[in-house]
Amino acid sequence: MINSAYRYGRKVVVEGRSMVNVIGIANELGYIQIPEGTLIDIEQLKNYPQEKTVLITTGSQGESMAALSRMASGMHRKVSISPSDVVVMSSHPIPGNEKAVDKVINELSIKGAEVIFQDTHVSGHACAEEIKLMYSLLRPKFALPVHGEYRHRKAQVEIAAACRKKIYSLCPRVMSLKSVRTAVASQGMCRQAVSWWTGSASETWAMSS
Fold it and tell me: What is the maximum span of the chain, computed from C-alpha positions, in angstroms?
């Protein structure tokens, strides 16, 4: 998106604390290359015509205090939505967030913006093969899916089993970090914990042998 903006002569504003942090770190580490002079501070936004700017912002899940939600509701101090704006929602609503996302889309539409939200999902989640790679690299003795919907945790169990390692998987319906530790202790599985995140819908607390 940043490269496309640069190609068409648009300046880019990054808004939302987490988005600013992620893009800043990725740029510093060389994972993305941002053409010089492309990024501008949000304070400079008013100095450019709308058709010469692009905003990359947080809030695609309808979070009430995220930048996009504040723009949609008219509460953002530096950005106002107008009928000439096009807003692309880059992810599907997480189960349970549908109403919040619909609210943001409706508010944007009321302000006249064109909202594109179908077939635009950009996944930040690992695919099954990438999760298998993590298992093969970490070689955990136990894999305990503790986050996501039950079906996500169940899928994580199946992936762990498919790795053909000596991995024992637990897939409780509800398991907090505290209850994970309790379960681990009760099973005699106390080991030095290694926390890692696959980036999948089902995050896993893995324990090294």
Answer: 64
Per-residue pLDDT tens listing for the chain (209 residues)? 999 999 999 999 999 999 999 999 999 999 999 999 999 999 999 999 999 999 999 999 999 999 999 999 999 999 999 999 999 998 888 878 999 999 999 999 999 999 999 888 877 778 888 988 888 888 887 888 887 788 888 898 888 888 865 444 444 444 455 555 565 555 444 333 333 333 333 444 444 33
75: phi then psi, degrees, rounded to nearest 5: -95, -10
Sign of torsion, CA 183 95 54 44? negative
190, 193, 198, 204: CA torsion to nearest 10:
30
What is d(CA 25, CA 18) in angstroms, rounded to the nearest whole number?
Answer: 11
Inter-residue long-range contacts of 115-118, CB under 8 Å, 24+ positions, other chains counted: 115/86, 115/87, 115/89, 116/86, 116/87, 116/88, 116/89, 117/88, 117/89
Q: What is the pTM of this model?
A: 0.66
Question: What's the rounded Cα separation, in Å, for the pair 154 and 145?
Answer: 8
Give the tokens for residue 77: 């101090």
Query: Which of 150, 156, 168 has the alpha carbon at shortest distance from 196?
Result: 156
* Angular region, 54: left φ>0, alpha ψ -120 to 50, beta rest: beta
| 37: region left, alpha or beta (phi > 0 left; psi from -120 to 50 alpha) | left
Cβ contact 21:14 at 8 Å: no
